[in-house]
Task: inverse folding
């Protein structure tokens, strides 16, 4: 089979055949009494696409999520989950369990987590004695904890991936070192909401500030970056589907329009993923960049958010839309106090619902789940 699955089209046909073969096997594996269950595991119903909706266990499923970037008890200097790879930031499963219990009580049903490329494979290049297994064990423990608390996990692949490695050679290395071991670990698990293939690939400012948005047609380099990244993401999608054919995929775009722009690069991304996801921030903090001389933004909340969702739905591909990062800083030095934060998060959630999206995932500008989520997901 591998010998004949060499082109994208051929690989797609092979993938469809493989899915047809594996689905009965997956159903058998899920049947009670057929396999020995791990007592730590909690099986959630698989989330699936039904037109523009998500469904789980035969009922509509709205994503009510939090981007989980660190524990509530994380000490200063550890702003990210390093999955035990940084000795200054020890892995604290008890703190994660406690955070997930607090989130569950606040109505959260999804956590989005970032898988640092160097922690999950990339450090092989220059770290003697590097081993990926401890990080994989911690990732598995996090997923199991989330599932026990009734929450799905959306893992973001290739976080912190080097911006100059969107090449065939870079892809081969990332596939071998990162994608295969990570996706293989969680393949077939129903408690994974979807694989987020890459976070904000449409932001190219680490290469050139003028290409902050890959759709900047004033500079040819930006279109070249877009072309290389679209090719990279296309290959990544098919490889992830090859390893985990039952799971959904998405791409956490900074801009909704990046699924179909720039026009100079014929992009397959709108037809590629199972779920559209994109991010919404406004002009606080100002250097978030969403308002800086950009044709797409500038009308403010909720119009910009509604526009992004409407443009994706107007593509006519009948796919769900999730706002996978939504948030506003608050407190001293920012324009919103706590009351204004609560107001604008409610506006954002309601605008997303009214525009036809199937959920939001909050960005944790606030330090605790209670300050971040409040009653957003539980109020009538």
Result:
């Amino acid at each position: 089979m591998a010998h004949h699955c060499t082109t994208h089209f051929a690989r797609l046909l092979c993938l469809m055949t493989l899915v047809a073969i594996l689905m009965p096997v997956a159903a058998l594996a899920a049947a009670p009494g057929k396999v020995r269950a791990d007592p730590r595991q909690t099986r959630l119903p698989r989330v699936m696409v039904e037109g523009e909706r998500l469904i789980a266990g035969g009922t509509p499923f709205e994503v009510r999520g939090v981007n989980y970037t660190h524990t509530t008890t994380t000490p200063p200097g550890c702003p990210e989950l390093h999955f035990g790879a940084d000795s200054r930031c020890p892995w604290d499963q008890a703190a994660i369990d406690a955070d997930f219990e607090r989130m569950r009580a606040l109505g959260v049903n999804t956590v989005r987590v970032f898988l640092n490329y160097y922690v999950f494979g990339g450090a092989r290049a220059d770290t003697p004695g590097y081993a990926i297994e401890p990080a994989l064990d911690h990732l598995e423990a996090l997923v199991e904890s989330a599932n026990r608390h009734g929450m799905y996990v959306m893992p973001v692949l290739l976080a912190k991936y080097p911006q100059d490695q969107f090449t065939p050679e870079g892809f081969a290395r990332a596939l071998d070192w990162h994608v295969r071991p990570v996706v293989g670990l969680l393949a077939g698990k129903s408690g994974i909401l979807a694989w987020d293939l890459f976070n904000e690939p449409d932001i190219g400012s680490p290469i050139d500030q003028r290409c902050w948005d890959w759709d900047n047609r004033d500079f040819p380099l930006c279109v070249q970056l877009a072309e290389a990244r679209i090719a990279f993401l296309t290959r990544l999608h098919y490889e992830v589907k090859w390893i985990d054919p039952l799971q959904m995929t998405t791409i956490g775009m900074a801009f909704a329009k990046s699924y179909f722009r720039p026009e100079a690069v014929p992009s397959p991304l709108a037809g590629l993923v199972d779920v559209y996801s994109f991010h919404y921030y406004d002009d606080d903090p100002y250097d978030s960049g969403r308002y800086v001389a950009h044709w797409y933004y500038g009308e403010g909340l909720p119009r910009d958010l509604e526009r992004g969702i409407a443009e994706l739905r107007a593509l006519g591909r009948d796919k769900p839309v999730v706002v996978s990062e939504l948030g506003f800083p608050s407190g001293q030095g920012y324009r919103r106090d706590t009351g204004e934060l609560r107001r604008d998060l409610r506006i954002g959630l309601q605008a997303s619902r009214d525009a036809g999206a199937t959920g939001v995932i909050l960005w944790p500008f606030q330090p605790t789940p209670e300050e971040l989520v409040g009653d957003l997901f539980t109020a009538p």
About this structure: The two ends are 53 Å apart (CA to CA). The CA atoms of residues 187 and 244 lie 5 Å apart. DSSP finds nine helices and eleven strands in the chain. Residues 220-243 form the longest helix (24 residues).
